[in-house]
Amino acid sequence: MIIRPATPADAPAMADLLNRIIAIGGTTAHQHPKPAERVLVDYIDGPGTLTCMVAELDGRVVGFQSVGRNPQLSAQTGDIGTFVEPGLQAKGTGAQLFAATRAAARAAGLRELNATIRADNVPGLAYYGRIGFVDHAHDPDWALNDGRVVGRVSRRFVL
User: What distance in Å separates the CA atoms of residue 106 and residue 124, rounded to the nearest whole number?
Assistant: First the structure.
């Protein structure tokens, strides 16, 4: 597996991966598909993006992890999001992505990372816990667009 910085050329493959994860449901707060143009701005080279790494296996993007600015957080805190190919989760892809992301976040001058995870996303909560994120906030009333209340957990990692 190759872990490398994302490029604009990765946007279509990243959108395809993200949209498959959204369609399955349950492991992302995203509820609507994103076109490649939106993935480019949101995760690769938009004004709020600090770093984005992709995991590539046999020439195919199988995961990505992005850190961006969140105006609700301190300037030294980045918001992290991780997306891994279903079937490859919990097999080391996320850990490899995080090693590269952590270094890039430090190089960008960040002091901590925030991950906000659906409270019903058991694999996501396990992943962020496994790599050292700790709970710092809970929003038990957070709801999906269809009204289902699933809650959210915010976890922090000190760089």
Answer: 23
CB 47 within 8 A of CB 66: no
Cα 10 to Cα 31, 47, 108: the distances in Å are 21, 18, 22
pLDDT over 90 percentage in the chain: 58
Cα-Cα-Cα-Cα torsion 13, 14, 17, 19, nearest 10 degrees, comes to -110
Query: Which domains, from first to last, does the chain contain?
Result: 2-158 (3.40.630.30)
C-alpha span between 31 and 149 (Å, rounded) = 14
Q: Is pTM, for the whole model, over 0.90?
A: no
For the stretch 101-131, pLDDT in tens is: 999 999 999 999 999 998 888 888 889 999 9
